[in-house]
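Bug report

Summary: structure tokens for DUF1311 domain-containing protein differ between web form and batch submission.
Environment: batch mode, default settings.
Steps: 1) Submit the sequence below via batch. 2) Compare with the web form result.

Sequence submitted:
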Amino acid sequence: MSMSIWRAGAAALALMGLVNGGQALAAGPCSPSPAHEAFDVQGLKSELMVTALSCGAQDRYNSFVMKFRTKLASEEHVLNSYFNSTYGRNSQRQHDDYITQLANVQSERGLKSGTAFCQQRMSMFDEVQVLDSTADLSNYAQAKDILQPASYLTCTAPNRPAASTRSRAPARRTVRS
């Protein structure tokens, strides 16, 4: 593909981000998702993709993907499981929305940084190239300041209060949409 097509793609991602707002969801008092590592790795992958598209480093991005293809596929499987268990029938749509929002917020950061973006982010390709293992990749992804569109947390329901002396008739549940 020519450079102008890559730039047009990056601009389209950035424009979608501006239209959608790409605002982060507020995190409550919950624990990190069991898929936390997968979200970190996906965030890194997306950050490198946005950098490659914005800075003309597609070959370096492709090298990263080839080097860590097994780990990237494994973490994608974890994300699929997370979205399936969390959103059920809407899992694919929610997963697609996450990937889109991720690219959008990262593209917005690039637009805000202007010409400094490539100077700030291109070194990431050198850093991931020297990583030796998939564990190194996970640790690197966790340590980097990778922007995410939302906090994906696992929350448990609060404990029920102790049983009272009142009747044990089944409670009615009202479902509201």
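Above is the batch result. After comparison, the two runs are identical; trailing whitespace caused the diff. DSSP finds eight helices and two strands in the chain. The chain has one domain: 3-154.
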